[in-house]
Specification:
266 residues, mainly alpha, 5 helices
């Protein structure tokens, strides 16, 4: 037969175990709060990264408008190629250097986005690992609570003395439910973060396609200008005619064009 002293000793041991469980839960709650704060920071970083991608897209659109403007300038330059061949060549070289600098800048920006995206993916993996650890801790805490509840039910003759312990147990159960809900919310935040990572990957692919298109356009423009220069060199005036008044040569050239019109390909 179990003596009252033994029951009191066992009840005291149970109280100590409950207090240890409560402290463990408090530590888990603090750890969970830190994890939530980290997730909020990562979400903000994801938003900032999305804004950077939008800014890059706007820069690409600006570069495309600038390229179209350069193409219109080249059209006007071709119409007066006989008088401004040297200036057109210098403008083409200057525009080519500028575009190469812009392409290098876009490539550097793209590398930065790739590095940032890889970092965010690693952070998402670490967050998932932390969530798995928290779920394991929660499962162990729930097992400890179940064991405590079983022990409390075995001490029914001491219900009056263990009333306080039962109330603490109920409070512990409510806190476990709240922590479970917080963990689920953390999982939803992780899914949103993964969605942002997917969006950033798609934006990176669009940047790569736009960069390839810009390189192809510059190559086509260079080929057109080279072809026009070769065509002009084939029809260049004689050295004696080059020493005459340029305005007189331009007038005669205009009259020849009126008599024998030709079609120039673009």
């Amino acid at each position: 037969m179990v003596t009252p002293a033994a029951l009191k000793t066992e009840a005291q041991a149970t109280r100590q175990q409950l207090e240890q469980t409560q402290r463990a839960l408090a530590d888990e709650k603090a750890s969970h709060a830190k994890t939530c704060e980290s997730l909020r920071g990562k979400t903000l970083e994801g938003t900032q990264l999305t804004q950077q991608v939008i800014d890059l897209q706007e820069r690409i659109a600006t570069e495309e408008r600038h390229r179209q403007s350069l193409e219109e300038k080249h059209q006007h330059a071709r119409q007066a190629l006989e008088h401004f061949r040297q200036s057109t060549k210098e403008q083409r070289d200057q525009d080519q250097r500028k575009h190469e600098q812009q392409v290098q800048y876009l490539q550097a920006e793209l590398r930065t986005v790739n590095e940032t995206l890889a970092t965010k993916q690693q952070q998402a993996v670490h967050t998932l690992q932390d969530n798995a650890r928290l779920l394991g801790d929660l499962s162990r805490a729930q097992g400890d609570l179940h064991q405590v509840q079983e022990e409390v039910r075995g001490l029914r003759p001491l219900q009056k003395e263990l009333g306080f312990a039962q109330r603490r147990t109920e409070e512990l159960g409510r806190r476990l439910v709240e922590q479970d809900a917080a963990v689920q919310q953390l999982g939803a935040s992780n899914e949103q973060l993964q969605g942002k990572v997917i969006e950033l990957t798609a934006a990176k692919q669009q940047l790569e396609l736009a960069l390839m298109a810009a390189k192809s356009s510059v190559a086509a423009q260079e080929q057109i200008v080279v072809s026009m220069l070769e065509r002009f060199s084939a029809t260049a005036p004689s050295p004696d005619a080059a020493t005459k008044d340029p305005f007189e040569r331009a007038e005669k050239s205009g009259k020849r064009n009126e008599k024998n019109p030709t079609v120039t390909g673009t």
